[in-house]
Specification:
Length: about 425
């Protein structure tokens, strides 16, 4: 679609939306996870009951998560270590002493096995289950007891993660039925997580590629308020992909919604989560927060020579929940007509935003910041294809850029002056 955006439209209708679409997602009586890609509304449903543990696949990742929503539980044997693995494990009275562990609902990089420690982010090399050793990998040090989906209890150690392969051991508490497992990240290239069925002793490839989904509709364990404290409880909700940010706006008009500010975007994997609904025990129906809106934006990391920096990619999506029936989600979804509106774009426009090669794209700037600024254009892969120093003034300015040297694809225009950032998108056919 060729959208001619004028300064008047940007200033007066900065929250204007395209026509809404109703999105219905069913996780099949809570048995499945549904992965949604917002750009084309493609939904991928997969069985969520066939795995026990999951491993992060990124090069620097050492996170290991559990399938808590389907009965998997994990305890840290904090009065023992990996060196005690070959001993018969007496659990009498120990479940009151051992720490029960949960997956983080904030970061994918903090699984239950990680003991709340991400060795890369902290810079300590401590991944909970093991310690990073330079030139080697992560060397395991801890022992755990795990309850599988089938109700069996096992002791388990994550022995090491070297050259991209996780190695682990598990057996019955009395040392019978010893098993050795391994999982290689490269076998699941392009996926956020790889999965393992401990009962069957096999790995599973069960989710779409990381670039093929934005939101996961699923069951997961959350700490719910209970009698003055918190209780781990499985909930139906929404988790965000690793490269997604979400802004939550409350007490707003869900039709004429103001656009979120940059600081309102969250990287929490449960930024949408499950609290947009509550169960009414009197009527036995779910009640939705009718004045809540979510904005969802995909980001990619680019390097323009000044170090890595996050850039918005694709459209800004607006979501409003309009229905929920236990395992069926209904959403009113819209795409913002102003790309990357988490930045202040009310004074910056690109037109036409779909052009043919060799045509000129016009950049229009209308006051606000003034003085020297940097103008950069990036390809969808993050390559810097055009750079220029510009002088901003209080008056209307138009810059004309010829695209003769641009290949077909999506491009992002970015103007930065100090902490102020303006960004728009255009397409070369």
């Amino acid at each position: 679609m060729n959208k001619l955006i004028t300064l008047l439209a940007l200033t007066m209708f900065s929250a204007m939306q395209l026509s809404a679409q109703t999105i219905e997602i069913d996780i099949n009586d809570k048995k499945e996870s549904a992965y949604l890609k917002l750009s084309n509304l493609e939904i991928t449903n997969v069985d969520n009951r066939n795995w026990d543990i999951a491993f992060m696949n990124g090069f620097i990742d050492g996170a290991v998560r559990i399938n808590g929503a389907n009965g998997v539980r994990l305890w840290h044997v904090n009065d023992g270590s990996i060196d005690d693995y070959d001993m018969v494990l007496d659990t009498s009275g120990k479940f009151e002493i051992w720490s029960e562990l949960l997956n983080s609902t904030e970061k994918w990089s903090l699984g239950a096995f990680n003991l709340e420690s991400d060795g890369y982010e902290s810079g300590t090399g401590d991944y909970g289950w093991g310690q990073y050793a330079q030139g080697v990998g992560i060397i395991g040090s801890e022992m755990y007891v795990i309850k599988l989906r089938n109700g069996e209890y096992k002791k388990i150690t994550l022995n090491e993660m070297v050259t991209g392969t996780y190695y682990f051991s598990y057996s019955d508490l009395n040392n019978e039925n010893k098993m050795e497992g391994e999982l290689t990240k490269s076998n699941f290239s392009g996926k956020l997580l790889s999965y393992y069925d401990l009962a069957e002793g096999k790995s599973l490839d069960r989710e779409p590629s990381i670039n093929e989904w934005d939101l996961e509709f699923t069951r997961y364990v959350n700490l719910e308020a209970f009698q003055g404290g918190f209780l781990p409880y499985p909930v139906s909700g929404v988790r965000s992909n690793r490269n997604i940010k979400v802004a939550q706006l409350d007490d707003v008009d869900v039709i004429d919604t103001p656009l979120p500010k940059e600081e309102e975007f969250s990287t929490s994997l449960t930024a949408i989560g499950s609290d947009w609904k509550t169960f009414n025990n009197a009527t036995f129906v779910y009640e939705l927060k009718e004045d809540r809106v979510y904005f969802v934006q995909r980001f990619e990391t680019v390097d323009n020579g000044n170090g890595p920096e996050e850039m918005p990619v694709g459209e800004l999506h607006k979501l409003v929940f309009t229905g929920f029936e236990g395992s069926k989600f209904t959403i009113n979804g819209q795409i913002s007509s102003v790309s990357h509106s988490n930045y202040d774009n009310s004074k910056f426009a690109v037109y036409p935003n779909v052009i043919s090669k060799n045509e000129t794209v016009n950049l229009v700037y209308a006051g606000g910041e003034f003085g020297q600024a940097n103008l950069n254009i990036y390809s969808s892969t993050g390559a810097n294809v055009y750079s220029q120093n510009v002088t901003l003034s209080q008056n209307l300015q138009i810059s004309n850029i010829n695209t003769a040297d641009f290949n077909s694809g999506v491009y992002f225009v970015r103007i930065q002056k100090g902490n102020s950032i303006y960004t728009q998108k255009f397409v070369v056919r």
